[in-house]
């Protein structure tokens, strides 16, 4: 059995599907002992109300063996730390483990009321968006959210948050929020239509500082205006965006190309172990014995990692290519504001404490 690169269609299929978890062997006795010690340390930290330390030790134990009891304790620590949304996820994971057959009668009695009480405490934010805005870009604390989710109410932790809503042809909306436990807030969002030929939308545009005020105070002869060619143009903003797209695509392509090479090396190493244990047996991993289970699992995981990295690397390079072509096209085709006419002129200039001639080309 030899490792082969799949076709592009297979790569796209692998990227669309959810990434499966790596098969993990049962923890050894040493790992179980370490997990028990981490749990006992977490209980001691909880007794001293050192919630962050307790949460860290609980995650160490969960990494060895996931149980409803560990998830329940972790949810309690997250609640005490004010991370109510994260705590609700831990309660949900404990519930899912029990649905899959994990036995935890002590947790089963406490889980439902604790989870129900926590859900009442979690603040929720809904947005009332203008009906004529089709595809708004919404972010909370710089994390994107779909508009459909905001219409139903997004659970957020208590405390300060930054909301920003943007839409094409509209002035952006920004708001600083401070949520308390139990809040149910529906916030109306105003997105005024921008006038034609306006610049990029801003939520709260800063006041424009008049850089010529000091010159005007010296007298009429010193009045002048900033040439329009010195203002940033739409072409500049467009080229900056295309340059960022090109750089980001190139970074993604190179990064995942490196990851693809590492996955290939892992697959080759696992294949070598399989060939050594079961030479000339193409079905060695169909029903592997205990000796081959680990190697077969590593091979399967490496193949999937390789496929995903290969697809994402190709997407990155294609994105970089599109960005580079767009950048070149904008540079060559996009109109540039006319430059000042060339020539030489001499004008009298007067100002506070000075008089003379000004020449320019």
Structure description:
The chain is an alpha+beta fold and 361 residues long. The protein has three domains: 26-121, Tetratricopeptide repeat domain (Serine Threonine Protein Phosphatase 5, Tetratricopeptide repeat, Alpha Horseshoe), CATH 1.25.40.10; 124-188, no CATH class; 234-333. The protein is built from ten helices and nine strands. The strands form three sheets. It has a four-stranded antiparallel sheet. The longest helix is centred in the C-terminal third of the chain and has 44 residues, at 234-277. Mean pLDDT is 77; it is low at 1-24, 205-229, 339-346 and 349-361.
Question: Which tags fit this structure?
Answer:
single chain; 361 residues; alpha+beta; Serine Threonine Protein Phosphatase 5, Tetratricopeptide repeat; 4-stranded antiparallel sheet; 3-stranded mixed sheet; 10 helices; flat; disordered N terminus; disordered C terminus
* Beta-strand content bin: 5-15%
Residue share in helices?
A: 40-55%
Order of helices and strands: HHHHHHEEEHEEEEHHHEE
Tally of helical runs: 10
Contiguous low-pLDDT stretches (5 residues minimum) are 1-24, 205-229, 339-346, 349-361
Given helix and strand content, the structural type is alpha+beta
**What is the C-alpha radius of gyration, as a whole number of Å?**
31 Å
Mean of residue pLDDT? 77
């Amino acid at each position: 059995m030899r490792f082969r690169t799949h076709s592009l269609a297979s790569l796209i299929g692998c990227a669309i599907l959810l990434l499966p978890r790596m098969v993990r062997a049962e923890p050894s006795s040493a790992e179980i002992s370490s997990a028990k010690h981490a749990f006992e340390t977490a209980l001691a930290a909880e007794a001293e109300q050192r919630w962050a330390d307790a949460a860290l030790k609980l995650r160490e134990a969960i990494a060895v063996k996931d149980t409803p009891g560990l998830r329940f304790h972790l949810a309690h620590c997250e609640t005490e730390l004010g991370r109510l949304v994260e705590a609700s996820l831990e309660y949900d994971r404990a519930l899912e483990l029990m649905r899959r057959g994990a036995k935890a009668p002590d947790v089963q009695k406490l889980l439902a009321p604790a989870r129900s009480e926590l859900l009442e405490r979690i603040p929720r934010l809904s947005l009332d968006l203008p009906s004529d805005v089709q595809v708004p870009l919404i972010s909370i604390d710089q994390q994107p959210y779909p508009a459909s989710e905001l219409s139903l109410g997004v659970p957020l932790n208590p405390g300060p948050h930054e909301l920003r809503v943007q839409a094409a042809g509209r002035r952006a909306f920004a708001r600083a929020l401070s949520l308390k436990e139990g809040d149910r807030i529906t916030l109306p969002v105003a997105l005024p239509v921008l006038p034609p030929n306006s610049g990029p939308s801003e939520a709260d545009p800063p006041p424009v500082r008049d850089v010529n005020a000091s010159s005007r105070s010296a007298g009429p002869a010193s009045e002048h205006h900033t040439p329009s060619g010195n203002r940033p143009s739409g072409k500049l903003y467009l080229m900056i965006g295309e340059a960022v797209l090109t750089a980001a695509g190139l970074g993604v392509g190179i990064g995942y190309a490196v990851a693809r090479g590492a996955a290939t090396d892992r697959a080759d190493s696992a294949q070598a172990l399989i060939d050594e244990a079961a030479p000339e047996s193409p079905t060695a991993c169909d029903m592997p014995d205990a000796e081959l289970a680990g190697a077969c699992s590593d091979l399967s995981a490496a193949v999937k990692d390789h496929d995903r990295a290969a697809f994402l690397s190709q997407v990155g390079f294609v994105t970089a290519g599109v960005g580079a072509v767009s950048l070149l096209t904008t540079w060559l085709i996009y109109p540039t504001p006319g430059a000042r006419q060339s020539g030489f002129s001499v004008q009298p200039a007067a100002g506070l404490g000075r008089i003379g001639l000004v020449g320019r080309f």
